[in-house]
Specification:
heterodimer, A: mainly alpha, 2 domains, 9 helices, 80% helix, 0% strand, B: alpha/beta, Rossmann fold, 6-stranded mixed beta sheet, 4-stranded antiparallel beta sheet, globular, binds adenosine-5'-diphosphate, binds magnesium ion
Chain lengths: 249, 266
């Protein structure tokens, strides 16, 4: 243990104790949940830090790490949407293509150094963003189809397959799934200081370098999300599988 | 309006002991009837007796409802509609559907009519086809200068005629209509009724209606459905009788038909 870790530990303990004290004083419920959440974050982040530290010394393992992350992202997103295994494969593809297009541009231009140190966290953040978008876009598509089911039936009654009929709804669903990121990007630096920016400042980087990296993340996320939303809303079935309140071919 | 002569009007649909259930719940039971070509056949009866359910079997639109199960034989021009190897997509292009609530696509008037042909990659002169279909439903003169306008801006009656034009554009054999005038005012209703009679010259029409006057005005044949209750008190629809419209209304054979007609015309 170095001195920094000890100081961090003390600060964390105090922060947590203060939060619990405030909750008790204010009669707020969920103290247990707060404690559990904090402990989970502690365990998860320390574990991830150890894994990433190890990967930095074994860069080939970065691909394995990102691969696992990709699969977990597709699973998580597909569960949110309530899709089947075929949908999951489509979502995996959507997340992969969105994230890799972005990482490719950033790596090829040399904007980020070609090393596990910089590309791994960047890729991870892109996969995370793609996962959120895939969930939003997929849920949106199925909700829209459900809300306008008579219109959906109209396409099917003219001889459209379910997917062809669904495509009439995908544009709008993809667009709507971009709103949160557009808002976040527009307000960057005004309402909130985004995570990468804050992190880099805390880590001792110059504000201008921090801004550059933050911009790569924000604009990169826009590209990721456009690609992932477009693909997701086209490859997944517009209808929930039987047993999820809808039908499908 | 012409009356049914089986030799002149070959059968388009033959239903034998058709039952439809949603999960465990039987909606309509043991329907046996035939539907003849180029005639208007009306399905009437109280709400909930399975008219819509039965209609949606005729173009496999019930496939969209996972719990729906169809038993018995639904034969369309000699083909078992639920048999192996039957492509529901092809069936739906042959058997169009007009819904109770007009459901125009959120597209231009032109694109609504062109949707079906484009699905089939028809590159032939779509402008000409759009004009022909809109003319057939009496909408051309009203919209000829606004073909690019959103179909959502049309009135309810115009929307319903647009939906019919959209069906005609894929050159169907049969048009199924589920209470097509239920949401329309009397003038728009009359236009749709006139149109049905006129379309029956070229198409087979199956019309669900709760409006008995409408059935007498447009239908060559009428089938009356009623709800029955089993020992557990579960309701299911049954076909009570099916006859040329004039016969069904003037000389019904079943007491339930007589009561229903008397009640609704009173
Ligand atoms: N999607 C569905 N799921 C379950 N039950 C349904 C569904 N659609 C209709 N039903 C039931 O089937 C019966 C017949 O309904 P319907 O065919 O709509 O009758 P009608 O058109 O004669 O009013 C009703 O009891 C109705 O509640
Ligand atoms: Mg109905």
């Amino acid at each position: 243990m170095n001195e920094q870790a000890i100081r961090t530990g003390i600060a964390l303990a105090l922060l947590l104790a203060a939060a619990l004290a405030v909750m008790t004083y204010g009669g707020l419920a969920y103290r247990r949940e707060l404690l559990v959440a904090a402990l989970r974050a502690l365990v998860q982040l320390v574990a991830v830090a150890l894994i990433i530290a190890w990967i930095f010394t074994h860069p080939q393992a970065a691909f394995l790490y990102l691969g696992v992350m990709l699969v977990v992202a597709a699973y998580t997103s597909n569960r949110r949407i309530g899709g089947d295994s075929r949908d999951r494969l489509g979502i995996l593809l959507a997340i992969f293509l969105g994230a890799s297009a972005t990482v490719l541009i950033v790596a090829v231009t040399g904007a980020l150094e070609f090393s596990a140190q910089s590309l791994l966290p960047f890729s991870a953040q892109m996969i995370g963003g793609a996962m959120t978008t895939a969930s939003l876009a997929g849920v949106r598509l199925r909700d829209d189809v459900k809300d306008q089911f008579t219109v959906f039936e109209g396409y099917v009654a003219l001889g459209a397959t379910y997917r062809q009929a669904g495509r009439e709804f995908s544009q709008r669903a993809a667009e709507k799934s971009l709103f949160p990121t557009l808002d976040q990007t527009k307000s960057a630096g005004l309402v909130t200081l985004p995570g990468a920016f804050v992190g880099m400042l805390l880590g001792g980087a110059s504000p201008l370098l921090a801004a550059q990296i933050q911009l790569l993340v924000l604009i990169g996320l826009l590209l990721v999300q456009c690609i992932t939303a477009l693909i997701t809303t086209r490859v997944i079935s517009p209808l929930a599988p039987a047993g999820h309140g809808g039908a499908r071919a | 309006m012409s009356h049914g002569d089986p030799k002149v009007h070959p059968e388009v649909f033959r239903l034998e002991d058709v039952s439809v259930s949603y999960g465990e719940q039987l909606a309509v039971q043991d329907v046996t009837m035939t539907i003849e070509a180029r005639q208007v056949t009306a399905l009437i009866g109280p709400s909930g007796c399975g008219k819509t359910t039965l209609l949606r079997c005729l173009n496999r639109l019930n496939d969209l409802i996972p719990e729906a199960r169809v038993g018995g034989l639904v034969s369309y021009r000699g083909t078992d509609l639920y048999g192996p190897g039957v492509d529901p997509i092809e069936i739906r292009q042959r058997i169009g559907m007009v819904f109770q609530k007009p459901n125009p696509f959120p597209k231009s008037i032109r694109d609504n009519v062109a949707y079906g042909p484009r699905l089939r990659h028809e590159k032939a002169d779509l402008d000409e086809l759009v004009e022909r279909c809109l003319t057939r439903v009496g909408l051309w003169d009203e919209v000829r200068n606004d073909l690019g306008r959103s179909a959502l801006q049309l009135s309810g009656g115009q929307q319903q005629r647009l939906v019919i034009a959209r069906c005609l554009a894929v050159d169907p054999d049969v048009i199924l209509m589920d209470e097509p005038a239920a949401s329309l005012d009397p003038i728009a209703t009359e236009r749709i009724e006139d149109l049905m009679v006129e379309l029956a010259a070229d198409y087979t029409i199956v019309l669900v209606t709760h409006n008995l006057q409408q059935a007498t005005r447009v239908a060559d044949h009428t089938a009356f459905f009623a709800a029955e209750f089993d020992e557990q008190g579960a309701r299911r629809g049954r076909l009570v009788e099916h006859a040329p419209t004039a016969v069904l209304f003037e000389d019904p054979q079943d007491q339930r038909t007589r009561d229903y007609i008397a009640g609704r015309f009173a």
